[in-house]
Design a protein that fits this description.
By secondary structure, this protein is α/β, with parallel strands linked by helices. It has helices spanning 2-10, 13-30, 63-73, 92-100, 113-122, 160-170, 188-196, 209-218, 220-230, 236-242, 249-256, and strands spanning 82-86, 105-110, 128-132, 145-151, 171-184, 201-207, 259-267.
């Protein structure tokens, strides 16, 4: 039932954005100790012998979410580049990019004022900044950024075409668009066509549904325990669903292929 409600919401631009605003506002009240700084489904390696990325002890709890950023944003060398993250949420990804990948600057932008207020209070690093704004009408001048990162956010946008137009506008020539998100199985080809028609060159495409599923399995205990600790009982099943907990309809939709998760590298 929940996954069907989620599908109804995903087909309505107004419902999508309203539901995400409510989600962020509710998180800001629940997460008093600032534990939730990532909201993606994560990435884990299918080969158990794959060398793990090195993280500081304080970042280990968010390893799987960080590994998704490493997979997507680490596809190109971001050293000394000006990077924009669109849909930065509570800022964990932008902070990771700044601290580990050595860009010149990272700007995080999100349509949730609550999330941006949190980020401005919580993060204090040279070169890292946050601002409120809409992905489909970015408040930046043309050709301002060398790379744009967008992870697990675009499925909430009213118009993917408008967003891609803004990406092309604010990217510098030869700049990179580093993108990952999920779609229902029947919409993957449409997404691929939108990317190809964006004016950007598609350099790499990878289906990572299996990696995301393994992350949800590996991180299930931590995610479920956090929800049990923070969320009132009447809302726990809903939070577990949105978190992709094992056994939920959303988790099953990845497992059956009803939903697929892809990552892409594009260049202007």
């Amino acid at each position: 039932m929940l996954v069907r409600i989620f599908d109804v919401i995903s087909r309505s631009p107004n419902l999508k954005q309203l539901s995400m605003k409510i989600w962020y506002q509710y998180l800001s009240r629940l997460d008093k100790d600032s534990q939730i700084i990532f909201m993606n489904y994560g990435y884990d390696f299918l080969n158990p012998n794959h060398k793990k990325i090195k993280l500081k002890d304080a970042d280990e709890k968010d390893r799987y979410c960080i590994q998704l950023y490493s997979h997507v944003a680490g596809a190109v060398d971001l050293r000394n580049l000006n990077v924009l993250e669109v849909g930065c949420g509570r800022g964990g990804g932008s902070s990771y990019l700044m601290r580990y990948l050595s860009p010149k600057s990272v700007t995080g932008i999100d349509f949730s004022r609550k999330a941006m207020e949190f980020c401005k209070r919580y993060y204090h690093a040279a070169g890292l900044s946050f601002c409120y704004g809409n992905a489909e009408s970015l408040p930046f001048e043309d050709r301002k950024f060398d790379a744009i990162v967008n992870i697990e956010s675009s499925h909430c946008y009213s118009s993917m075409d408008n967003f891609l137009g803004e990406v092309a506008r604010v990217l510098r020539t030869n700049g990179y668009f580093l993108f990952a998100d999920f779609r229902s199985r029947e919409k993957i080809d449409h997404l691929r066509n939108q990317l190809r028609n964006s004016g950007l060159k598609l350099l790499k495409e990878r289906r990572i549904t299996g990696n995301v599923l393994k992350s949800l399995d590996s991180d299930n205990k931590r995610r479920s325990a956090m929800i049990k600790e923070k969320v009132p009982k009447v809302l726990r099943n809903t939070f577990l669903h949105f978190a992709g907990a094992k056994g939920t309809d959303l988790y099953k939709s990845f497992k059956t292929g009803e939903r697929e998760y892809y990552s892409f590298v594009l260049q202007k």
